[in-house]
## 1
Amino acid sequence: MIQVEGLTKIFHDRKRGKIIAVDNLQFNCQKGQVFGLLGPNGAGKTTTLRILATMILPTKGKLMINGLDVVKDAAKVRREIGFLSSETGLYDRFTPRETILFFGRINGMEDKLIEKRIAEIFHNLEMEDFQDVRVNKLSTGMKQKLSIARSMIHNPSVLILDEPTVGLDIITAKAVLEYVKSFRDQGKCIIYSTHIMREAEKLCDRIAIIHQGNLVAQGSLAELKEKSSFDDLEEIFFELINQGEN
Amino acid sequence: MNRKNIKLIFIKELLGTIRDKRTIIAMILIPLIFYPLLFTVISYFNRLGSVKSEEAASRVMIDGAEFAPQLVKYLQDYEKFEIIILEDDSPHKLQNGDIQAVLVIPRDFEYKIEKEEPNKLVLKYDTTEAKSRIAKQRIDQIIEKYKGEIVLQRLASLNLKEEFLTPLILQEENIATAEKMTGSFLAVLLPYLIIILIFTGAMHTAIDITAGEKERGTIATLLVSQISRLEIVLGKCFAVMLISFVSMVLGLFGLFIAFLSGTSITGGIEEVQFGISTNIIFLLFLVLFPLVGLASAVLVMIGLFARNIREASSYITPIYMLTIFLGIISISQGMELTGKMFLVPVLNSSFVFRELLMGKIYWNHIITTFSANMIIAGIALFGATRLFNKEEVLFRS
């Protein structure tokens, strides 16, 4: 599970000076749950997820994943997490099988276990037909399946998904959402960032609305509805953001 | 640090590079096929041109032919001359290339020969025209021969032998060993070529697996894996080192084939005896290794710093120019480095290469060069790892 307390991240930019990307965020996500981070571009979603994925360090705050400190036990935390974003590209000159073998190995897995996982994952994601075709010959949908397989190879208990449907056509995006649901059903703890209201509505058990680095509101869709005079998530989102600004 | 992880990154980078068509073109097609083909074609046309000029007769105009009938006859007897007696527009014709040379004979030519006074002939030719230069050489030869005959006649009239003119003979003996001969032949260009080939070989791969990885967004996937950042940098660096070394070897091999194919058409060069000892080869590798490491580490560091491939290329261009500059300095004959100058990377290697190829082993130079380059390569590696840990460098956009 994920526990985040008082997460703050400040960047220093030569031209713009001090930028508070994330300000005192607080949330947690349990096993078998999809926790949505909902916010417009620049809200601080990617920064939060990069910190959780041990790619960058927080300025302040305490972050725990499965009881491990994200800053102090970064190497151990990486064993527990799978990271996927619209930016995590793939190696064009490798085949899906080679890609997964490589990522399995660099995650410290034995070849036998990797082969077993490859058979399992490729079957579940229907990737057998193109497992030996080079990535540069694959369609966007096939590539996204491979990205999911890559993030899942070491069977992580926590999935960090940063806008994984950006740039995908609706059929592929729907398929990705189905996979995320199936991972939740397997008992994984999933943190999912998006700016698409429909996705958050359909997928997330709990939603945190963030705007300009601040947590505006969080709770289940029903709880958010209670805080607002609207029924539709999009309307709720704008109302809560406006309240936050005022 | 886990060696297995370094090996995984190393193999991944190597495989990716080998599967890149651009690598195959740059590493194999260009040196092994394009260089020899280019040399062959250039040599063929060169040879074709020079054969034509050498076979054709030189049209030489003589001004004052009537003052030296004997000399004119001498010239006319030579089959490669077409002698023309003076016409008014001779300077114009020489410029046009209608004739290749004009020989001016003074009025008192015969008189001065008889009186044994120095005689002066004037030869006009165009040094920018190959045919005119050939005509000049031919006239030189004939005049020398004619001069020799006059001297012999004069000696005979004084009852003197031909040996009278050669009281001393200086016989030259070349004591240079085959090793040194090879070295002096190779030492001129080889260090420069090695340095340039190492840098050009390393450049493409170094940029592609650092800035290219950032550009394609694959770097994040490595950062969230079990592998440490030092292991990633080392794996990448070793891959660039191997690619750079292989490119250099293939490049040199290609140039060697090109040289041979070129010279076989032009008719061959003076035979060069190759005689480098195994000791020297070992020492060459000893100096080569830190240089390859240095080039790779510096280029990987720059690639990691850059946002994308374009930015990396523009950062690397001045480094490449500097390398070419240092390489050119190493070509300049007669220049010697002093002790401290062996601390200057690249320049030190090229001078030690030169010394080794000449068969000279100066341990202080070898050790200074090896240590200096290893230390700088180490600093660059450290710098690259530091950069790889800096989030503002990894994720700046």
## 2
Amino acid sequence: MAAPGYPVAEEGPEPVLPEVANVYWRPRASADSLHRRGRLWTAWMVAVTVPFALAGGTLIALAPLSFPVAIMALVHAWVIPELYAFRGAGVVRSKRREEGRSERVAQGLLGDLLGHDARELQRETGLAMERGKLGVWLVGEAGALLVAPGGRRVHCFCVGVNDGELPPSDKIAHLLLALRTDEEGFATVANHAFAGAPWRVRRRLDRPMRPALNLARKSASYTAAA
Amino acid sequence: MSRLIRMDSTGHSTLAEWSAEDQAGYEAAVEAFRRELDEGYIGVLDEGEGRATQVRDLPKDADLVIMRRPIAGG
């Protein structure tokens, strides 16, 4: 099912990614299931941060001399979501390596698969932007970010191709082709690592990648409003 | 000219090329395509504008068919 405000694929039999057979026990991902998963993450964040924040505030109010303990509680309330966001942003963190001939060849093929704007963005940020039914995707070497319609939540997916010899751009091309073949299947196969506010994920991204998230968020906001 | 390529450690390798009139070239491409399927590769026809289709038989009129490895959750 497409998210509200997003174009629905034309009628016809739904394509199925062959890799979905390897995770047959997982229910097929959809806009609804991702929305539910995002809300669960929000609830979990509230559950792990609010008690610490309340404990810290109460301690300071009732026994000001216990402020070291109160500060520790408040630090916990801040750090726990940051650690989750760090793990989430890590799915698209690239490994620095020398750019050899194979990478230049792979970059050419990836450039052919992407449109002009997405090609430029990928060269600058390392992330390939792809609009889909579920939102706006940013595809990296070993994972992808999905900015949900409205741009207020980012899902982080850990997914890749199990071939260490492939150049980075070929890894992105693998994921891009799988995503284009069956978007919901792609979201089913990928491991969901985190869902949260874009600002939280953005702070943990490598600096050159941040403009890609800004653009994806803007694009997701426009489409949802349309 | 149609092309069958495989994404690999070199960036990509051209496995076969054929044209609509070149039946022998197409048959050689089909053979190469099947060999890659047997090796575990997946054939994909990129249709542009965010669309791609998995192909189990080599389409004669395709411009470009790409062989990719399966993906998995990390």
## 3
Amino acid sequence: MDIKIIVKDRNNEKKTVSAPIDMNLNLMEVLKIHNYPIEGTCGGMALCASCHVYVNSENLLPTISDSEQAMLDDNWDSKQNSRLACQIPMSKDVDLLNIEIAPESF
Amino acid sequence: MIKTDIIIIGAGPVGLFTVFEAGLLKLKCHLIDALPIPGGQCAEIYPKKPIYDIPGYPTIQASVLVDKLMEQIKPFSPGFTLGETAETLEKDKDGNFTVTTTQGTVHTAPVVAIAGGLGVFKPRKPPIENLHTLEKKYIHYIVKEPSIFNKKNIVISGGGDSALDWALYFAENYAASVKLIHRSDNFRAHNDSVQKALNYAKEGKIEMILNSEVYSLDEKEDNIFLNVRSKNKETQNIKCDNWLPLFGLSPKIGPIGNWGLEIEKNAIKVNNSTDYSTNVDGIFAIGDVNTYDGKLKLILCGFHEAAIMVQSAFKKIHPEKNNVLKYTTVTGIKGF
């Protein structure tokens, strides 16, 4: 079964993309598959902030690890609802997750 | 001018292993890397992470892999130009390449191997409007020469290892005063450094301004003024001689994007059915920097690409010679 993720890109364009939940994918990988300009430089180790997103829905998400928190703390565009997409695994919990891709960090 | 057989752009694991494979064919290599140390991503992004897919090592820490590669290539005496970005590439009428770095170091060779990974690591700059106009005079994103901060009042921003390490260093050396601004009250640096910094803060050697960030800059009479805002919206204005925003480095494809190579999605297109050659004769691209159908960005794939690529490099450098594959179990390692 696929779930739906609602994505707003950096040009404020909104699209709904689907993602399988049985492929061990995380949101960073799903965004890359759908050709969003997400770099995922560190490959998903929460060691860079190149997959920074804002979460605009109330889905149940895994708690933020120390490593993820540290990356968000050092990031200029971080807000209360900031997450690293690589730390959000695809599961039923994130069906209809509503996210916005954060500005590219320079 | 540095003359060699193969100029390798990028001293990450794949660039380093290229030296070994080339060395077996008695080809000399010189590596250029923008980072001041070898290791690429393994050194800059995840030195303490375990890697599980290096054949023969059930697990190996990234920094240890780099150390072992350095040991493995030592017999072949590679040259290094570190802390400099390969900026321009020119090909002369005899087909030799000249690669010049941002600092003006000139290298020449008949073959160039680009093992540039994700690209050049550049400092992450805070998005402040007049940053650009003030950066030359007051702002340092990387500390190259600590002594230039002698008797200076400096402010460091950031919460990672580099911010903490330099705050400690300048609290003990050179600086007249050190302030550390961090957006949170948690640091992601090593526990020892964090503890030491907190002790220094108690002793008055470092002034910590936590849960705060610099949001704008002013300049007055040879001083820079940082406008700082805390999470509960209190503001303050800090006068200093220099500001060091140390928010880590992020990779950008950099100048190799302008070398006439065919680029697709920030990677160099290569011919993977033969030898990872690019559209420019004599230039190869291996490791994470290249792309082809079925490409896997894995260190072990980069190692394979290096071994294949040096065979073609040999033919290009010695067209008159026939190379026969020799096994290290038979010949051992004959350094030079």
## 4
Amino acid sequence: MGLNDWLIALHLLSAFALAAAIVLFWVVIVVVRRTDLPEQVASAARLLPVGSVTVAAGSIGVIVFGIWLAIALDEVKVWDGWVLAAIVLWAISTEAGRRADPEFDPCVTRANELVAAGQTGPDAELAELARTRTGLLLHAVSTVAVLLILVDMIWKPGA
Amino acid sequence: MLASIRPDSWNLPLFVHVIGAMMLVGGLLVASTSVMVARGEARVLRIGYLTMLAICLPGYLVMRVGAEWTYSREQLGDAPDDPAWVGIGYITADAGALLLLIALILGGFGLRRLRGGGTGMLRASLVISVVLLAAYIVTIWAMGSKPT
């Protein structure tokens, strides 16, 4: 196996890590939006640290190995339209994901505070924090951008 | 940079294959994480199992349909022997289907037993998801690097 084979494999593994983390965040979002019980929210939130590490590794890996590949492969140039489109979409996805994260922090903090205080019953403020529209919208934007990157990578418009 | 330039007719089957595989791997990440962070807490294990049922199972089916569709479009079956990376894909997909089925059945019983307080079967079901995730990481590497 040559260097380029390794680069493609690492680029693909990073893309899967990014997509897997997005799925994980969707699962947590769906769970917390469907409940107003602090323990349920706190339980779902325990998945988040793994999601954060995975999304960081995936995002960095996909751009680093992707650009490295574009430089290494003779038939691809960094300034090709579809490569530039992917870089722009990656930036949109990363920024939307980064902004979505703090939107859910107050909900997790509130749930942990309630659990620590021994309050296990439904909480209206928690339910309101969990149903953040901004957080949902930003995560949806991040997801759509990643889907468009996949479409761009497979169809390679203009190549 | 998922692969080099290929005929347009291969793109849609490949897209279906990859999107299904991403759903499958994403669901397995959730299931694996849940068993690792649960510390025996049934609520977290339940999230992991329901994710396997709602995301991994449909993801697997989409991935498998896309794989066969891509295989026929690329006419890989015309060659006397499959390339090694296709072989790895078939082995992990077929063995993975069996393991996923076992995990879902085991977890289904485990979910019923939760009312009695036991989490052993649900945990065992989710441990299988860790094995599956490891196998699919190797498969993704093989699909990308295409070793001979």
